[in-house]
Design a protein that fits this description.
single chain; about 475 residues; alpha/beta; Amidase signature (AS) enzymes; eleven-stranded mixed sheet; 15 helices; about 40% helix; globular
């Protein structure tokens, strides 16, 4: 998709200004219903598109992303734009600097049309927890798009943009990609800089792309990956043209199917579609290997101890002083200000996770919960280390079910958290994960997408991208 549009730009079949105008036309037609966006940057987008057209006219070399309309999740800072993280707490916060990923796509002349909706501070699995209203699934607007990058997924699948940036702390790129029928890539922890991304879980967060094709995800990763001196956790792993590794051949590759991901809780129709995709990999020349990741059953509980703990620490900075949010508050003491600002500014799910995290970090409970969770995290990592001595990739369903109805799980947080049961482990152990569309199931007369998740060794994005690409071009 990106490469095709790039060729059309170079050949004069279309201009960047025309592509950008088309994007805003689609947004005008669809976004009132879908609500994929929280804000738009039309003036900057049109200016960037015009600059790209001038470069093409002058015979200058342009990048593959140049002139291509895209979107950025609204927890990624961009200079001079409101960055809300879908929270009333940051309703008027204008970022004074660019996140590194924003800088890198701007340097490649990508046309950013706006900021997309998400669950508040990336807390949720459906994009229903946004303080500015839910995003709807473009396949069936009565259903959730997944979360927390639901706005980015909806924008891509509805053709409002060609690709979008999201963030993934426990599945927030891969799960909405699965629900909407897109490709979603969570890179290895440290592959992409987190500088300028509003922190949720600092040992879990990673920026990635939601795209229409696997090659597009590889193209975007090539532009945003690489070491960043502003982020101490970013890896010095070297930059690669990941799209060049999409060769369409996985003959002889060993793909592991963990039995723990196919047990109770997996929808029967989703299981059937997933097993058909396993057979497809076999036909493409891959060797299918049954494996075990024995500590998988503890992954979700471990995640929901570690993530809220890190969240409660990261969100302590929002006190109404530095980032705003104290408007209309008249406290008599500092403590009153904290209570009023945070009580008014945070939504119910954010408050729930802050309280859970603060509890698990408190004296008397730290060893019993947080420290123990970190020990289990080490065991989960060991499971993957052992698995990768036998196989090249691990393949699982992305989610245990297809997109469900809006409001169906709002009153039951535990059911909501189970939406992430197959995705949180990749964040806990840091491996890369790629969700690709593998089929559909019929539900209420609508064909709803099903995603399959490829996980690879640490810093082997090129491997899972090639595996996903090979599947995609042969489907």
């Amino acid at each position: 998709m990106i490469r095709d549009l790039h060729e059309k730009l170079l050949n004069g079949d279309v201009t960047a200004v025309e592509l950008t105008n088309r994007a805003f036309d689609v947004i005008d037609q669809k976004d009132e219903e879908l609500h994929a966006f929280l804000s738009f940057t039309k003036e900057q987008a049109m200016r960037k598109a015009a600059d790209v057209d001038v470069k093409i006219k002058n015979g200058e070399k342009i990048d593959l992303l140049a002139g291509i309309p895209c979107a950025v999740k609204d927890n990624i800072c961009m200079t001079g734009t409101v960055t809300t993280a879908a929270s009333k707490m940051l309703e008027d916060y204008i970022a004074p600097y660019d996140a590194t990923v924003a800088t890198r796509i701007k340097e490649n002349d990508a046309v950013i049309v706006g900021k997309t909706n998400l669950d508040e501070f990336a807390c949720g699995s459906t994009t229903e927890n946004s303080a500015y209203g839910p995003t709807k699934n473009p396949v069936d607007p009565t259903r959730v798009p997944g979360g927390t990058s639901g706005g980015s997924a909806a924008a891509v699948v509805s053709d409002e943009v060609v690709w979008a940036l999201g963030t993934d702390t426990g599945g927030s790129i891969r799960q909405p990609a699965s629900f909407c029928g897109a490709v979603g890539l969570k890179p290895t922890y440290g592959r992409v800089s987190r500088y300028g991304v509003i922190a949720m879980g600092s040992s879990l967060d990673q920026v990635g792309a939601i795209t229409k094709t696997v090659e597009d995800a590889a193209i975007v990763l090539s532009r945003i990956a690489g070491h960043d001196p502003m982020d101490a956790t970013s890896a010095t792993s070297g930059e690669k043209p990941y799209e060049d590794y999409c060769i369409g051949d996985i003959k002889g590759a060993k793909i592991g199917i963990p039995k723990e991901y196919l047990g109770d809780g997996l929808d029967d129709q989703v299981r059937d579609v997933f097993m058909q995709s396993v057979e497809k990999f076999k036909l493409l020349g891959a060797e299918i290997v049954d494996i075990s990741l024995p500590h998988t059953e503890y992954a979700l509980a471990t995640y929901y101890i570690i993530m809220p703990s890190e969240l409660s620490s990261n969100l302590a900075r929002y006190d109404g002083i530095r980032f705003g949010g104290a408007e209309g508050v008249d406290p008599k003491t500092v403590l009153e200000q904290y209570m009023e600002v945070r009580g008014k500014g945070f939504g119910p799910e954010v408050k729930r996770r802050i309280m859970l995290g603060t509890y698990t970090l408190s004296a008397g409970y730290y060893d019993a919960y947080y420290k123990k969770a970190q020990k289990v995290r080490a065991l989960l990592r060991k499971d993957f280390e052992n698995a990768f001595t036998k196989v090249n990739y691990v393949f699982t369903p992305t989610a245990p079910e297809v997109a469900f109805k809006l409001g169906a799980k709002c009153d039951d947080p535990l059911k909501m958290y189970l939406s992430d049961i197959y995705t949180v482990t990749a964040n806990l152990v840091g491996v890369p994960g790629l969700s690709i569309p593998v089929g559909t199931v019929s539900c209420d007369g609508v064909q709803l997408p099903v995603g399959g998740q490829l996980m690879g060794k640490w810093f082997d994005e090129e491997g899972i991208l090639n595996a996903g690409y090979t599947y995609e071009i042969n489907t």
